[in-house]
Queue: 2 jobs
Job 1
Amino acid sequence: MTPNELRAAILGVKRWSHADQRAPNKPLMMAYALAKYIQGHGQMFSYEDEVDRDVYLLLKRFGPSRKAYHPEYPFWRLFNDGIWRLDNAEECIPRSSNSDAKKSELIKHQVTGGFSDEAYELLRNDTQLATELLETILTESFPESIVPEITTQLGLEFTFKRVQKRDPNFRREVLNAYNGKCAICGFDARLNDDLFALEAAHIKWKQFNGPCTVNNGLALCAIHHKALDKGAITITPEMRVAVSDSVNGGGIVEQLICDFDSKQIQRPRQTKHLPLEAYFDWHGENVFR
Ligand SMILES: [Zn+2]
């Protein structure tokens, strides 16, 4: 296996996601293993002692909101992508519905998993390659505002240097459309003539084919942009703020976030710039918690 073949295989894994739905199980499992390799971990990971706790936390923090989280799915299913090795897996009794092993079986048989021998041989000797692949996986699956939180949880400093491809006009056009104010709270601080802490947010993430067009954008202050990307808030098709029940914090959080629940947001100056309902629907289903 060459580095390019490994790159292609990892990018191939991402493409199983259907119809722009977020499915970050495999990306987060691979990111976890790569980050651990960068920190000197050996090839294989214990399901019981490592993955069941660590990848669970990653899925819970950074995946779409679910009733339950299943780190055993990507741990098991990556094997079918041809870049993953499982040891002690032969004895595991599969579920009745598919060929996946149950979590209890992974624990009972002390199953370990990690990148395949060929892939690990490349990664072990090349931290730069591991870092590059980690960066690719995260930036293909999460917006820029979230990636540093994930790398911190993975125990790494955020040192990626990739220049993000973006439409150079997106920010300017979105801020203009909303008159240089946060669509939620009206924040419009300037230092002399420079707006600061006002950002152009994508409603449907670029990573899931959300376009860099004004009708997929909102002008938001840094706090409300982050709250939108984290799924702490969403915007309903009626252009009202919805705040997640999971948001909590002191009085300032009430003022900055909770008090905006069900409030109408500012509309853009021109009707042609109104956000499309489909983008709000995507955000509500895939990001809002
Ligand atoms: Zn705001």
Job 2
Amino acid sequence: MNLYERVGNIHIHTTYSDGTGTFEEIAQAANEVGLDYLIITDHNVYAGQHAGWYRHTLVLVGEEVHPNNINHYLVINAQDEMAPYAQNAQALINAVRARGGLGFLAHPFEHSGAYAREPEINWLAWDVHGYTGLELWNYMSEFKSYISDPLHALLYALFPKLAIRGPYPETLAKWDELLGQRPTFAIGGTDAHAITYRMGPLKRQVFSYRHLFRTVNTHLLVSEPWNGNFDHDAQLIYEALAKGRAFIGYEALGETRGFSFTAEQGGELYTLGDTFLARGPFTLHVRLPKKGHIRLILNGFCVAEAKSNELYYQAKAPGAYRVEVYRSFAGKLRGWIFANPIFVHTRRRGKGN
Ligand SMILES: [Zn+2]
Ligand SMILES: [Zn+2]
């Protein structure tokens, strides 16, 4: 199957909730950066009337639904106001599914920076089921966690690349645990608000939408080219998200467009989010647009590594294979690409297994 890469930014707040940009302003920023799509998710308000094409950026409207300070849920394609379900996470997940929508657990683990004085908003309802996946990497949530004092506030506001490292280890570990139970797909978000903070002696907008659109993006592999019809093109985005045909790219360390992760068996190719039955050894192939430190993870364990722009690996074992790529900046390895798994089974499960 031919797949087409679409690069976009997910988890954005507008003036409908606590963001500072209008739909038009935010779309303009996405246009300037060259993003293919945006998914707007205001707090407990669905502004679906603003969805549409804004020049060459497809703007989709979801919602971040939640009670106070726990269990933030990113709702996509429910096409309805979901805030009335905010108090009960499972009821919310069920209501979204009943409307054919998708849902991702937002910033499931947070660390509060002592200086930012904002509450940690964690996902606590881990007994729920039926959600599509989780927001593995939330740029603003991570950024705020490193603001421990006025000096770091100022330093990191001026040089955010010094702060950012990647998804938290506990979020990655939780994802691997969930992958052991069922397919759970990852997306990246920026939690873009473009709010002005006082950072030490400076009053500074942290950060503009334009800045954020060059940080943590979600790259989707859609099954057909776009044709300019809003419903058709939006459906391709939703389909890719539902199937996990996605990887997260932190563009500040180098553009990630062109990354690929595939499995090949007997001439058949599989990619992100796919499941196949192994009839013997198969080959996994990672390709990067630039050199990086590649880690191939199977069921939570690293099974192969390379400092290269490519990695081949002959495999036999079943499980969820996923890829992480790091790059060095200012003396530290930092997260660059996090890709959804390819799932491999070695035999069909019989009834009762
Ligand atoms: Zn949130
Ligand atoms: Zn948010």
